[in-house]
Write a structure and sequence with these properties.
Blueprint (H helix, E strand, L loop, with lengths): L3 H4 L1 H4 L3 H9 L3 H17 L26 H4 L3 H8 L7 E2 L3 H5 L5 E5 L4 E8 L2 E9 L5 E13 L5 E8 L2 E4 L2 E4 L4 E4 L13 E2 L1 H8 L3 E3 L7 E6 L6 H5 L3 H13 L20 H12 L4 E4 L18 E5 L2 H4 L8 H5 L3 H5 L6 H4 L8 H12 L12 H5 L7 H5 L2 E4 L5 E4 L26 E2 L9 H15 L7 H14 L4 H14 L4 H13 L5 H13 L3 H14 L4 H13 L3 H14 L4 H10 L10
Antiparallel strand pairs: 1-5, 2-3, 3-4, 4-5, 5-6, 6-7, 6-8, 7-10, 8-9, 11-12, 13-14, 14-17, 15-16
Helix pairs in contact: 19-20, 19-21, 20-21, 21-22, 22-23, 23-24, 24-25, 25-26, 26-27
This protein binds heme C (HEC) (7 copies).
One heme C binds next to helix 6 and helix 9.
Amino acid sequence: MNSRSRSFLSFCGLNISFRALWLAAFGLLCLISARLRIAEARQSVQSSQASQKPPDHYLNTQPGVEYLGDEACRKCHASIYLQFKRTGMGRSVSLPSAEDLSQLAKPVTLVAKAAHRTYSVYARDGKMIHEESESDAKGHLIFSQSYEVAYAVGAGDVGKSYLVAKGDSLFVSPISYYERIRGWDLSPGYDQGTFRGFTRRVVDLCVDCHTGMPQLVAGSHNRFQQPPFRFLTVGCERCHGPGATHVRQHTEEAATGVPADEGPLDVSIVNPRNLRNEIRDDVCAQCHLAGDARVLQPAKNYLDFRPGTPLGDVVAIFSVPQTIKGNHFVALDQFEQMKMSRCWAGSNGRLGCISCHDPHVQLHGDEAVDFFRGRCLTCHAASTCRAPQPQRQATSPPDNCISCHMPKQPTENIGHSSITDHRILRTQSETPAALQPGSSAAVLDLISDTKPSDSAATQTDLRNRALAYAQVAGHYPELGEKGLAALEQAAAALPNDAEVQAAYGLVLEFARPREAAHAAQFLQKAIDLGSQSVEVRTHLAALRMREGQVTAAMELYKQAIQIEPYYTPAYLDLAHIDLLLKDQKAALELLDQVLKMDPGNDAAREERLKVAAPGDRKKSP
Ligand code: HEC
Ligand code: HEC
Ligand code: HEC
Ligand code: HEC
Ligand code: HEC
Ligand code: HEC
Ligand code: HEC
């Protein structure tokens, strides 16, 4: 169902072949020895528990504290500001620049043979244009569509994807730039046909990780206010929390010369360094731990998260256990990898992203090597490494810890990119020292990666788990039975939860086609409870058609179109009904609408040719 979090990780996670490598090295024997070593490591680092920091009470974790944007921090933190703006995160989204355009003096053309389509990128009137077209065997143009690029996503270290706007909605372009080949190619997922043309919705999650502050129209998933992003790039306040209290306090302090009464910690703004391990890591996990399923807590959105509070209060993130993933080709992100490392297990979770990364700087080459070596040496003495000295001195620069223990793996099949091995293995042939805590070879259940502050709330756990199952059901049939049971239980326990009712209805329809009438009840209930889902409406409409309730079905399709004007499946189905009702004119109108917003829609074009009277054919777009 929800393929989104995984599918765009084809660009972001980038670690497919990496995982394959791990799988190849994975065997039962290694598993047992890994467990033994973990137990050993746990004992050896009991003392680090004493360094757990006390719970934190920051003033800017409270709702209502204003966000100010990075410019407000510049005045007093100029050097951090300037450094950060040069990092990948500080450049995570951009408008196509003059430099980008100058490189397009000559248009770039790509041919996707399988799909018979041609793509080009060029500059026109100071804008970057992406174009898709198709010609028939004789070279006659079947369609062509072009869009001005609104935003470039990604700093470009690996590559950039592009967003185009249709009305107030944003869509991903089928063409991306890849640094490794220094050139253009289809975006990840477009060559396999998972996505097509300019029809892939950006959906809320994509912009939540890459932009400073997306401004979605309330209740919508892909419609934005103007401007769509209040702050363009990932910014200071995504890691430090809203800054208004801090800036007010320090501005007053500067004006009066009287220091604020702070005690030992400046509680006006969060410094992740001072947070408890889990909450510290949560700051990074909001964007770096995609998980296999992400379920927002009731009535929450991603921007409700405040650094310094548990991420689990806003979103429940779940992973499919390795035992099941083993049969599938799935990526792992840095979190999952780090938690397999002996450094993490052995330090009792003291190792976190910021043990190694200073998010304000992005270093390159020898500078990076020295920096990271220094980070390793905060916990290890250089002498503990058991590799022979001559070998260690032979790396460039000498004794480069990360070249041996955190090498980069190419990920050839996707994204023309490579990714750093965050499992921190002794040798590459080694089995990772740990599986995720709580997961054992016997567990065939989703693993919960986030904890809310009130983890005693069993109702919400039931709900989130059930919704997570609904998200992974399509990819992991092994979890199907368990998922269906969880959903059934949740649907009964939470009769007023629109999302649960919707998910149960959709999964039921998929898993037990013979119980369609039963599924329809839940889908209807979801709508009655206020669900704004277009999928729920189109699925229910199809069931209504089977029951012969034509008017009800049409009404549902029309609602879907109203909620999401670019949701073409609803137009197509509606056109089919018009044809059944012998209303050719209405059907043609709908098909033309589809082709206008999605000229590459083969189904609509074929249908239109069939429907149109022969004399009418010339007029077809
Ligand atoms: C009027 C000046 C001023 C402005 C504006 C300002 N700060 Fe600060 N900030 C300070 C001072 C002074 C300190 C304490 C000394 C230091 O660490 O430099 C500080 C400390 C911090 C700390 C460390 C807190 C700790 O407990 O370790 C963070 C994080 C921080 N600021 C973030 C921000 C962010 C983010 C913004 C923009 C929203 C911002 N600051 C804007 C003056 C300012
Ligand atoms: C709001 C989302 C968000 C948060 C929070 C976040 N990151 Fe990132 N991070 C990103 C994105 C997006 C990229 C990719 C940027 C690009 O290259 O376009 C990234 C890239 C990085 C990189 C690669 C180098 C770079 O700067 O591009 C590192 C390292 C990194 N993040 C570490 C961290 C750490 C450590 C934390 C927690 C302290 C953190 N991030 C929090 C979104 C986030
Ligand atoms: C869960 C958070 C998340 C989501 C959702 C997400 N990304 Fe990313 N993206 C990242 C992070 C983190 C990185 C940094 C690379 C890494 O982790 O290896 C990244 C890297 C990238 C890069 C490479 C950046 C560079 O500097 O080379 C591109 C391009 C990109 N993402 C595009 C997208 C697009 C387009 C979408 C939506 C369809 C999307 N991402 C959704 C977190 C996310
Ligand atoms: C990706 C997360 C992230 C972003 C974005 C970020 N910071 Fe930080 N910041 C941190 C972390 C983590 C620390 C603690 C670093 C440490 O002590 O190793 C920190 C520490 C600080 C401190 C304390 C002093 C210091 O040098 O450690 C200040 C001040 C600060 N940040 C300001 C800013 C400002 C201003 C911005 C925006 C220009 C910003 N930060 C963006 C994560 C972030
Ligand atoms: C927060 C502290 C910490 C940091 C930082 C750290 N490690 Fe570790 N590392 C540990 C602990 C603890 C162990 C387990 C030691 C034990 O149990 O004897 C470990 C184990 C290891 C092992 C053995 C792995 C295995 O599977 O047997 C290697 C290799 C290693 N670390 C390399 C590194 C490198 C390289 C870096 C820097 C990139 C690094 N570590 C950074 C704490 C850390
Ligand atoms: C033991 C040290 C260590 C820890 C812990 C660590 N990283 Fe890294 N990370 C590295 C190194 C080394 C690189 C490669 C940097 C380079 O080549 O310049 C890297 C690279 C990255 C990148 C760039 C993409 C890539 O894979 O090359 C991202 C994003 C990133 N780390 C995120 C994270 C996040 C998120 C966490 C916490 C879950 C984390 N890292 C924990 C050492 C670490
Ligand atoms: C030339 C590659 C290379 C370099 C450079 C290197 N290591 Fe190692 N390291 C290894 C190998 C190989 C082993 C496993 C040796 C064995 O078990 O026989 C190892 C083992 C280790 C271990 C596990 C020791 C144990 O008790 O089992 C640690 C910790 C470690 N290295 C840390 C480091 C750190 C820190 C650095 C940088 C200061 C570093 N290594 C540099 C290759 C390297």
